[in-house]
Amino acid sequence: MEEVSIKPTLKKDLCESINKLIEELTTTGKETLDKKVLKRLFQQASVSEEYLDLSKRLLFQQLEINHAQIRYGAFLLVNEFVTRSAHFRQIFFPDLLRFLDLSLKGLVIRGKKKKTKLRPLQVGILLKKKTIQAMREWERDFQDDAHFGLTIALSYMRGLGLDLEVNEAEGGECGSNRKDLSDRTNGEVEMSLNVLRWEMEGREEEIQRTLSELHSCFTLLFPNYSDHHSSVSIRVIKDEDNSVIVETLEELKKLVSKTHLPFLKNLLLSQHVEHDAELKNRLENLQWKLEKEEARLTKLEVVESYCESIISRGHWMDGLSLVHLSQVLRVLVPMIQTGKR
User: Fold this and answer.
1) What's the DSSP call for residue 260?
2) 204 and 282 in contact (C-beta within 8 Å)?
3) Helix (H) or strand (E) holding 303
4) 3-state class of 109 per DSSP?
């Protein structure tokens, strides 16, 4: 990596360490980043905004190297910085057009475009695919932050018609040879599967922990509960003794519905997941377990203790506010409909 000018306010040894860590992470040739090395880099780069500025310059140096694996490693690092640091987004998004030129179209030298096919070709294809995916995620997560550079870059990307993973120019050289095309396709499938496996590995433990917590909460609330009750609505009276458990269940329900299930469904929609039966079975099994818990949580009816107390005493109209009345009626109406009081 070329030497980067260091501001007088920065410590030389820390700058050199950040330089070394970025070079190490972007030249391994691996499809994922070493978590321990990544953690060290973030600890050092987060010391001040000036070190984040330096990290950005060093990353662009790596992106300008005409080698797909180095650019892919630099892309992975950029994505981590964008996700974690508001300041990095602020200084990086204005240069998104330059980033797209390097990661999607080819090498850029002193403002001039030079057509080139990145090698290894399979990694170049994966780089393009992951870049487009990252841009969609950045649009979803950071568009509301008024990053003007992001808006321009998204329009630019769509104007290039880069919705396809591989365009005709990239496939031309290999398209004339069926064996090369087959090898390239197999390589792309395997790389995509490795990405899916890595994403699954990072989330599976958290999902299993959520399932275990759900089981524990239900066991504490309903010691005699069994699976054959899952089709029946169950009511729990929330009081000071069980409020923590009930509130934990409510939070876990949000985690299941809004985080875990969308994540699994997204992986199952991947075009290459069919090529790994074991991975697909793991995903489907976890999805089935979560959907089962989601259904059980939906049938759980939580009643505040004061509602049950008012109904049981028969003085259910004494001093009720409109809010309290609506909550009481939610319990009372079904009881009247079934002939109970």
Assistant:
1) I
2) yes
3) strand 300-304
4) strand
- Quick check: 68 and 118 in contact, CB under 8 A? yes
**Cβ pair 68, 121 in contact under 8 A:** yes
CA gap 168, 187 in Å, rounded: 18
Find out whether the peptide bond into 120 is cis, omega within 30 degrees of 0.
Answer: yes
Q: Which two tokens stand for residue 151?
A: 């808006």
pLDDT tens by residue, 24-37: 999 888 888 899 99
Q: Are 3 and 169 in contact, with CB atoms under 8 Å apart?
A: no
Q: Is the pLDDT of residue 179 over 60?
A: no
What is the pairing mode between strands 107-109 and 112-114? Answer: antiparallel
Listing DSSP states for 151-176 in one string gives: HHHHHHHHHTTTTSSS-HHHHHHHHT
Q: Sign (positive/negative) of CA torsion 24, 30, 34, 35?
A: positive
Q: Report pTM.
A: 0.45
Q: Return the structure tokens found at 235.
A: 């009511």
